[in-house]
Amino acid sequence: MQGIAKADNIGYIVPEPIIRHFLDDIEDGRHDGFPSLGVILQEMENADLKKKYGVDPKQTGMLILLPIRGSAADGVLRAGDVLVSVEGHPVADDGTVEFRPRERTGVSYFIQEKQIGAPLQVGILREGRAMDVTVTLNRAMEQDWIIPMEQYDIQPRYFVYGGLVFCPVTVNLLKSWGGNWYDSAPKELTAMLSNNYLTDERDEVVLMLKILAADENQGYQDFSTWVVDLVDETPVTSLRHLVELVEKDSGSPFVTFGSRKGQQIVLDRARVGERQADLLKTYRVPEDRNLEIPGPPPAPLPVR
């Protein structure tokens, strides 16, 4: 008989709405998850903030800072709009809604109770004018994130070039720093979780994780866990994009990896090409890359 001393006599209950949502979700044989409106919001408890955006002192709502690229809100809602209601339920200045009489919870409640592909009615103020708009909840909330949360039953994606090991930043990767990973992992990486959403600049954060020591990368041993922002002065948007930039004929004998801090790693293309097979054999790496993204984004379901 084994147990955890501090976990005896603890039970866990899954709320009924979550179970109901899951059962409705898998009716078509596929689990798509909980939808997202796809906006970054700010509370509006300050009177001057309300005044700037034409909100009456007695009116409540939340300020839309940014519609996330590709989300349900993209192209429908704008930065500077004020979200005042969701499905007819008023949104308070602190971002809560009443879901039962005199009981409040976060505004996402009435969004995430719906299925992906369903319409959502939202009330907004735009430049002081009240409007009702409909958005289609086109994707799961994790597809708004630039750093994926825990993932299961998938192979890590990576690219090895000249002994440099590149990979996307994920929570799976951050957890390799141990049980206290949030404090142990590099602060530059964990800080990204505070603003974890897609931007116009990139689809994922690419990291130069470590260096497999070789003559061609000698002198770069201190560059591990280094965010790669540029390849040959071109901004990197994803791991696949980095590979395309490396393998593109740039007309230069060198490939230069750069950061926004100005740091550079410069490798000789011809030298790396000559030694790549031997390096992979030395470190017993079967392939120089795995770029496959696990599964296509789910298609919107028909509204039930």
How would you describe this structure to a colleague?
This protein is an alpha+beta fold. It folds into two domains: 5-139, Pdz3 Domain; 145-290, N-terminal domain of MutM-like DNA repair proteins. The protein is built from eight helices and 17 strands. The strands form four sheets. Strands 1, 2, 3, 4, 7 and 8 form a six-stranded antiparallel sheet that branches. The two termini are 47 Å apart. Residues 296-304 have low confidence and may be disordered.
Present the secondary structure layout.
Blueprint: H1 16-25, E1 39-43, H2 47-52, E2 62-67, E3 82-86, E4 89-90, E5 96-100, E6 103-106, H3 109-112, E7 119-126, E8 129-136, E9 158-161, E10 164-168, H4 171-174, H5 181-184, H6 187-190, E11 206-211, E12 226-227, E13 230-231, E14 234-235, H7 239-247, E15 254-258, E16 264-268, H8 269-282, E17 289-290
Antiparallel strand pairs: 1-2, 2-3, 3-4, 3-7, 5-6, 7-8, 9-10, 9-17, 10-11, 11-12, 13-14, 13-15, 15-16
TL;DR?
The chain is an alpha+beta fold and 304 residues long. 18% of the residues lie in helices and 25% in strands. It is globular and about 70 Å long.
Question: What are the salient characteristics of this protein?
Answer:
304 residues, Pdz3 Domain, N-terminal domain of MutM-like DNA repair proteins, 6-stranded antiparallel sheet, 8 helices, 17 strands
How many H/I helices?
A: 8
What is the residue-mean pLDDT, rounded to a whole number? 91
Estimated radius of gyration: 24 Å
CATH architecture of the largest domain: Alpha-Beta Barrel
Described by strand count, sense and barrel closure, the largest sheet is: 6 strands, antiparallel
CATH class type of the largest domain: Alpha Beta
The CATH topology name of the largest domain reads N-terminal domain of MutM-like DNA repair proteins
Structural class: alpha+beta
List the domain count as a whole number.
2
Percent helix range: 10-25%
Poorly predicted regions: 296-304
Total count of strands: 17
What is the H/E string?
HEHEEEEEHEEEEHHHEEEEHEEHE
